[in-house]
Design brief:
The complex is a heterotrimer of chains A (about 150), B (about 130) and C (about 500). Chain A has about 150 residues and is mainly α. Chain A has six helices and no strands. Helices cover about 75% and strands about 0% of the residues of chain A. The longest helix of chain A has about 30 residues. The two termini of chain A are about 20 Å apart. Chain B has about 130 residues and is an all-alpha fold. Chain B has a single domain, classed as Helix Hairpins (Orthogonal Bundle). The longest helix of chain B has about 30 residues. Chain C has about 500 residues and is mostly helical. Chain C has a domain of about 200 residues. Chain C has a two-stranded antiparallel ribbon. Chain C is globular and about 70 Å long. The chains are: A mainly alpha (about 150), B mainly alpha (about 130), C mainly alpha (about 500).
Amino acid sequence: MIEAHDSLIVRSAGKLLIPLSQLFALYVLFFGQYGPGGGFAGGVILGTSFLLAVLVLGPQAPPCRLAHQLEHGDGIGLMIFVGVGGLCLIGGGTFLDYSNLQIPGWNDEERRSLGIVLTQIGVAADIAVTALSIVFSLGQHHSQEASHE
Amino acid sequence: MSEHIQAALERPSLIAFVVLFLCGFFVMTTNSNMIKKLIGIYLLQTSVLLLLVTIGVKQNAASVPILTEKHIESPETIAPAAYVNPLPHVLTLTAIVVQVATLGVSLALVAAIYRKYGSLDENEVLQRIE
Amino acid sequence: MRDQLPVILFLVPFATAICLPMVGLKAHGWCRPMALVSLLVMFVLAVGNLLLVLKHGEQSYGFAGWSASASPPLGIVWVNDALASVMMVTISFLASLCLLYSGPLSPATEKPRIVPYYALILLLISALTGIVFAGDIFNVFVFLEVAALSAYALVALAGGRALIAAFRYLILGTLGSTFYLLGVVFFYATTGTLNMEDICQQFTKNPELLHSKAVVGGMAFLFLGLGIKMALFPLHAWLPGAYTHAPDAVSPLLAGLMTKVALYGCVRVLFWGLAAGAQTEQLPALTLLGGLGMVAALAGSLLALAQQELKRMFAYGGISHIGLILIGVSQANQTAFAGSMFYLMNDAIMQAGLFFIAGAAIQHHGARTVADLSRLRRAPWLVTAFIALALSMIGIPPTGGFFGKWHIILGCLEAENYLAVTAIVVSTLLTMAYFQRLFLSMFGHREVVPDSAAGALAPSTKLAVGLTALLVVVLGLCSEPLISIFRETAAGVGL
């Protein structure tokens, strides 16, 4: 049984820090193009921020309800990844050969950069949802809720 | 014999790998509590990843292979010996993701066993089945 | 699009598996038709791939535009040759058959479980596709893990005792994968590459690398890991529990595919990665695998003789057949290689067929143990299929099992390994003994035990059981072209 944390200090700090960490997760995701970071780290931070919301603010708070909705989006991240790869196939090259993405007016390097960013977004979405669903499936309270729906 | 010991002491990462590997193996095989077995497996896999990362290290303080404008202007200054081998790091990333997925599935299994049989100890669960 | 067939073969079940959670939210009645259609499409594409490869020869597929024919190849390479295409046809055919069979027996009757069940099966099949096509040792690791994780979850779907069996499978399987990864690390440290062809070239260029401690240690860990995955005799402890307690609809799929594809991976690493280097003085890998295979063949059939439960007996039978195939692989000549690959195909179909019959017996007649088999006397489809599969398991012409064993024995005689021939013959006699036990129980008793729930078999069950029995005989009659394909593959590797 997870309830909202007793202390007002923890709850207020949570309300400040959770959106900040989600922003940081997005920063890490896009900074992966130029330095360390990328989809895996960004996805983990995103998933952890939602978990922090559940632990600190309790299961009835709006971020927690959003997390429950997200839990159903199991395949979205992988769909983005496979979708990008499939677009490359359709464009005429091998799987994940980003230079075949048919975008008019862009040259080879820009297409490859866009392809990598899209796959990293897909990976981050997938890892965030996976982290959420692993923790939710372990909690008996939540799984009972889910089976009653 | 002494030159073998000498060679082993010069490579501390390999000693760390062997110690962690054996610790993980011991924890996994001797405990009957299922969560402790999972901790042992996690330790086992982490030790292999440690070995994988330390293989890519180069001497003379090799740095991260990131392309900057200086390199684009004069590509002949790129010397392979000055940059850490990135392939083991990529392999480690993939193996970490595999490790986390395995941990997720195993924890879900243990939670299901606990809900059904009420105990986390393997011997007790086997007794309750009979 | 013709060159992209390996990736399309992988993407068809994978994309369907990814879309299933979204579909399952709205309309979960669509999950089963979608899964079935995607597996049937995959089967058609696999047959097309086989015909293409037979006509045009081996093809390599380089991912993301990195050329596959550069030397050394820089990117991930998938190898699409005759052996891989035949394995793909087998995998997709067995998968569609298992899905057809599982209709009335599905463990997924309540709503929250339908989506995970079909998604896991499709993920398992796509991961096995990845192992079959893989051209470098790390790809094999990743797909081996994906397949294993899906298998752990599928075994656990039955609840109850299956949870413990799945946990044991998980612990041992993860141990195996960790050992395999350790072997890959050692190989990477010595040769600097992960591509199987490139490793082979490195070893031919510097033969002294083969005798270094790192490579010998790497080989030991690699084959230890793969041995756990394919349930080689001393490392088989997870298999009987997992296959016996798994849901009846899932056991045929796992029994027919998991250990066989792991053995295929072992063959790829042995002959395409290590090639002539598989026999070193410190670790004569082929001799060791052959010896363990002999022990497995004998021990598996001996243990099967002592079992009471049907599914457990068939699981131990599978262990003995893995040993048999390994004996054939370790002789290192063309005849034995062709025989063992042909026997691998047959064994996948035979194991699936036996578990189809066991599942139908449990579902329709309540016959779980050997003693209850007399309830099956009035079931014509099950009895006929059982007779055909038994003939093939023992190895009586004209079924496929006979031709596989025949070529393996010929190969052992060619290599003058009479111990292996003795082991194969004794194992065959033991197989005949436990099937004799089953037949006695089925037909021998005077009084007929009344059936508790003898409903008519569903048409899909009849189709699945009948097709496997028919296929085992057809494969035996048409064994020549397949054996010649495998011989050519062996010649291409230098055997």
